[in-house]
Amino acid sequence: xxxxxxxxxxxxxxxxxxxxxxxxxxxxxxxxxxxxxxxxxxxxxxxxxxxxxxxxxxxxxxxxxxxxxxxxxxxxxxxxxxxx
Length: 84
Description:
Elements: H1 5-15, H2 51-56, H3 60-83
């Protein structure tokens, strides 16, 4: 497979010399600084909050609002069941 004249010109501009289609590509291994040898999960494990810490973070108004919603739903279901 030979190179087209335009590809030869690109190679001449890029490498300072003409390239041949049968020329091997110069390959060197990547530098050692390129890779990070640490394991992906090597970081310190994040501590999860306990249940009491999670409950302390809930605002009081949310507890009251959710309690009212649950009571309304239970009343609607009980009223529907008694209607039958």
